[in-house]
Design brief:
Radius of gyration: 20 Å
Order of helices and strands: HHHHEEHEHEHEEEEEHEEHHHHEHEEEE
Shape: globular
Length: 485
């Protein structure tokens, strides 16, 4: 099917292009040179989303963050993450200054039907995190600038995503971990699911990555002012759950405070470590959604200020890359144990029971051997349970045991395939072709989606670590080609 044969698809593609598809923007482009947002774009973001990109408060440059977590000490020893692959499952990465050598895995987002949007971040979230991890620009260097960043895009230009896409993305990373030596996975996605991690499919996906040698770093969530519990899949006890601190703009830990949005956790599961997550200044996408919606968060040099446990997770993910470059024999359990052992308890807590601040010097010199003992998950729970209250919207919400193509999802069958590393067969996942063939180690030649073509989308609720993608929807749009049961 061509765009010309489907007028509503033409309208959608025009909206995508008019919101500044980054793949067509020169790297030197400024926001005021880009196309204006159209009147067809969704309503302004909620107050909760605005908190993530507020303009006031601490300014944490990446040089400062490197000092605060003692990454600078590892840099002085020549450690830069070289040879370590870090997978980032997010909204893609734009080819902005400092991030022009990112490796792009499959684009399984709803943007993938628009050629100029494939792989590229037109929202801004993934690019911001990528800058923290591996930017090579001198004025805003990532903490692991020589690590190989592999971007798997699941979030669309407006943040739209379903948990089935995230699970598929994790499965893909696990099955392709030997390409580019993927040893770290940074995942800032989270739902408010209360499903037991022992059966939850999203939890099983990250656990499978962990048991296949990938250190999974997850955001704890941003709704700490509302509830204590972590988001799914940070609730999985094997992975590293990261909370956020406000460094107050200083190198010392004695004045650091836990960010108000960072959840404290419950007796059953809390954050494993804290890292800077307030006032983080990193790469921005000129003309992207965040850039045009929150201009007050812009900083000189095409940089952007953001808050969240997403950013804190990116810091820890980069730190893990440094540790693995120094000692490639470390297992994920070893990495977690040494990060926890080397963390610095905040003076404000004083009990020694709360998670400590990441200290990479102490983590590197720790000789603790990791040996976690937890029950293994089955993944036999429901996809709907994994979503919690977060649902992708068409004419009706995407609910129940079906993926974004409307294909039935059998969690027992999927979990067995994921564990056996057979859930992806070429470009097919869950009996549908999600992406084209053509992976050659450096990129994908994306084919059109087969079986179903999506015609519009929306986002209802929070996601990507608890907030920040709220209230999107399109009047008069719906899901074409699929019947939702």
């Amino acid at each position: 099917m061509t765009a010309a044969s489907h007028p509503r698809l033409v309208r959608l593609l025009l909206v995508v292009l008019l919101t500044s598809v980054v793949g067509t923007i020169p790297l030197s482009a400024r926001a005021d040179e880009l196309p204006a947002r159209t009147s067809e774009l969704p309503s302004p973001p909620s107050a909760d989303e605005a908190v993530s990109w507020e303009a006031e408060g601490t300014t944490a440059t990446l040089d400062h963050v490197a000092e605060a977590v003692r990454a600078t000490r590892l840099h002085e020893r020549g450690l830069t993450g070289r040879g370590i692959g870090v997978a980032l499952i997010d909204t893609g990465v734009a080819p902005v200054v400092g991030l022009t050598d990112v490796v792009h895995g499959p684009d399984i987002s709803l943007d993938s039907q628009a050629e100029q949007a494939q792989h590229y971040d037109v929202y801004g979230h993934g690019t911001h995190l990528a800058g923290i991890i591996t930017s090579d620009r001198q004025d805003a260097p990532g903490l692991a600038p020589d690590a190989t960043l592999l971007s798997v895009k699941v979030g669309a230009y407006n943040g739209a995503v379903d948990v089935s896409q995230v699970i598929a993305g994790i499965d893909w990373v696990v099955q392709h971990r030997e390409e580019h030596n993927i040893r770290v996975l940074v995942l800032a996605y989270g739902t408010d699911s209360t499903q037991d991690p022992l059966v939850d499919p999203l939890s099983h996906a990250v656990e499978t990555a962990w048991h296949n040698g990938i250190t999974v770093v997850t955001a704890a969530g941003n709704d700490g002012q509302v509830r204590d519990s972590l988001v799914n899949p940070a609730t999985n006890p094997w992975v590293i759950a990261v909370g956020a601190v406000d460094t107050q703009g200083t190198r010392r830990v004695s004045d650091d405070t836990v960010a108000t949005f960072s959840p404290a956790g419950t007796p059953a599961r809390g954050p494993d470590v804290l890292a800077p997550g307030v006032g983080m200044v990193s790469a921005r996408v000129p003309g992207g959604y965040l850039d045009t919606t929150f201009p007050e968060a812009q900083r000189p040099g095409d940089l952007f200020r953001g808050n969240g446990t997403s950013q804190a997770a990116a810091v820890v993910g980069a730190g893990v890359a440094l540790m693995l470059e120094d000692n490639p024999s470390l297992t994920p359990d070893d990495v977690k144990a040494r990060i926890v052992d080397g963390s610095k308890v905040l003076r404000q807590d004083g009990t020694g029971e709360a998670p400590g601040m990441l200290n990479l010097t102490q983590a590197r010199t720790s000789d603790v051997i990791g040996a976690q003992v937890h029950l293994l998950s089955s993944g036999s729970g429901t996809l709907e349970g994994a979503r919690g209250s977060y649902h992708l919207l068409g004419d009706s919400p995407l609910t129940g045991e079906q993926d974004i193509f409307g294909q039935p999802f059998d969690s027992v069958v999927w979990a067995a395939e994921a564990t056996a590393l057979t859930s992806w067969d070429g470009g097919t996942w869950n009996n549908t072709e999600w992406t084209g063939w053509g992976w050659d180690g450096w990129g994908w030649d994306i084919a059109e989606w087969t079986g179903t073509t999506w015609d519009g989308w929306g986002w209802d609720g929070w996601g990507w670590d608890g907030w920040g993608w709220d209230g999107w929807g399109w009047d008069g749009w719906g899901w074409d080609g699929t019947q939702w049961d």
